[in-house]
Amino acid sequence: MPFRRAREHDPAPRASVLGITATLRIVQVDAFTDVAFAGNPAAVCVLPEPADERWMQAVAREMNLSETAFLHRENDGWRLRWFTPAVEVALCGHATLASAHVMWENGDVPRGTPIRFLTKSGPLGAAANGEWIELDFPAVSAEPTKAPAGLLEALGVKGDVARNRMDYLVEVADEAAVRRLNPDFTKLKRVETRGVIVTARGSAPYDFVSRFFAPAAGVDEDPVTGSAHCALAPWWAKKLNRDSMLAFQASPRGGVVRVTVRGDRVGLAGQAVTVMRGELTGPALG
User: Fold this and answer.
1) Is 175 a catalytic residue?
2) Which of the following is catalytic: 67, 134, 175, 221?
3) Which domains does the chain have, with CATH numbers?
4) Which of 46, 28, 29, 30 is nearest to 38 (CA)?
């Protein structure tokens, strides 16, 4: 799958993906925010054909964002894969929201038309609702468990611990405890898990707050984590006896997520802002 570097006289950098020549554009989007330079940044690259995963991993490492998303048309949907700078992940909310935003903005899909994504976590949906984008994700409920060795020590907190197939969830005493967290990432990286969610009840207008740490996946703190809300939504729905809630992820960048529990699915809604557009000119791997 050779990519050639652009020559000085080329009108635009171009690349060949599996024999198909196309300009490969990449867009950076701030997700779960309505203003630039907040929320969670993700890069989005829409491809004409499947790409070599070593190349996708190299691009994600070059972008150095918590996730870079790659999409291409597949049957009646769009194949979507997400890469951190270190690994491919099975579920990512903010880069999915960013992908829908880019595809409507660029005309890959008519503006407002629902999008069906095909992913390692099954089919996911995106639909426009005014200025908000609503995602249809699986609920990934966390069940109470014993804290693994080193987890609470690395976080520097006490709390109730639960786990799902992806992450540990730690509920702490209050919102202030979430906001002042300063984990020891060297210790936290030794805990065998994708990531760690720390959460507490929120203050108005937010029903709950959270932060998310994933040093083992190459991301010490993720600014706003859609997939974490697939666990947080059912967790707080039971405690608050509410199906629809407003959440705030209290990272330094911060981000707002509307969540709705619908049986074994979770609706995640957020806004997105494009902050940068570019073209990939480097060679592919493989």
Assistant:
1) no
2) 67
3) 15-132+272-279 (3.10.310.10), 143-263 (3.10.310.10)
4) 30
